[in-house]
Amino acid sequence: MLNSTQPLVKPSPTTAPPISIDGIEQRSKVPWRDVALFTGLAYAFAWVLWIALRPNLFHFLTASRTPSNLAVPAIYVLGMFAPAAAAVVMRLFISKEGLKGSLGPVRAWRFYALAVLLAAVVVSLVIGVDGLTGLGTFTWNGKPSLWVEYAGLAFDGLTFSAVMALGEEYGWRGYLLPKLLPLGESKAAVIVGAIWALWHTPIIIAGLNYPGVAPLAAIAVFIPVTIAMSVLFARVFVAAGGAVLVTAVLHGSFNAFGDKLTSTSHLTGSPLVVTPAGAVGIGVILIIAAVLYALSKTGRLQRRRITAQVAAGGHGIA
């Protein structure tokens, strides 16, 4: 059962407490000013850097195909920390929640394991569906064994890739999602997903995830993929009591398993279809998210209580 019993600290005095467990949508209004300012800062911090480093970046948008390799310098990775930087600015100077407790529960051990497992399962299922349908063919040279590779990718997802993903997760899930949760978890996740997807546009057209395809097709596929992932991430985030590090591990593990196992070196087929960031991935991610929601139904009141507390600004380090 995906419920969290870890206590959250009391909401800050500047945020209204929930009216009732069953009335989360009526608890308070979404602070749309904060949502808009955070989104603007996250886009500005990343896009200004990316365009400064590659002034002709949006020329990729009019090309017939995206580059076969990501056509940007390695320093572009700094832009991935823009959502975190935007969240820090908001917390310190604009919405002023402060930074204390902003990571949520830290010692959510079972959810870290769940995050790695979910990423491994999703990527494996995508590869399996590709093979069964003939959409793609997976090959492995056996060195190291696939089991050893999985163990290494799990460690990567828990460490280096999680640190890199925290630059996004501290913003998208740590700041933006709780602001939108008064709308309800699903609606909030869809909005975050759309913002998250479009934010990636400059590097998507530069070759990230979809090499050698029409740029507009890459954007068109990436938007529903990211919304589907946002729904899954939101379910895990809320179930873990608002644990940002858990979603960082989930995000990092997706990157680790997906980048390695579904690269063109191992998986054939159109990246718009056969990868976790393709059409098959959309279906698999949504099915897994639906399963998690179904598993949490028996603990519906607890789930709503946690959602309300997270939306109200409750964070805790447990």
Give the structure's gist in a few sentences.
With 318 residues, the protein is mainly alpha-helical.
What report would you give on this structure?
This protein is mostly helical. 59% of the residues lie in helices and 0% in strands. It has helices spanning 24-27, 32-53, 82-94, 109-133, 146-158, 160-180, 185-199, 201-204, 215-239, 244-261, 279-295, 300-311.
What are the main properties of this structure?
318 residues; mainly alpha; 12 helices; 59% helix; 0% strand; disordered N terminus
Mean pLDDT: 89
Total of DSSP H or I helical runs spanning 4+ residues = 12
Summarize the helix and strand pattern as letters: HHHHHHHHHHHH
> Roughly how much helix do the residues carry, as a percent range?
55-70%
What's the count of strands?
0
Question: Which ranges are low-confidence, i.e. pLDDT below 50, for 5 or more consecutive residues?
Answer: 1-27, 314-318
Any idea how many domains?
1
- Separation of the first and last Cα atoms: 20 Å
Write the layout of secondary structure elements.
Blueprint: H1 24-27, H2 32-53, H3 82-94, H4 109-133, H5 146-158, H6 160-180, H7 185-199, H8 201-204, H9 215-239, H10 244-261, H11 279-295, H12 300-311
Helix pairs in contact: 2-3, 2-6, 3-6, 4-5, 4-10, 4-11, 5-6, 5-10, 6-7, 6-10, 7-9, 9-10, 9-11
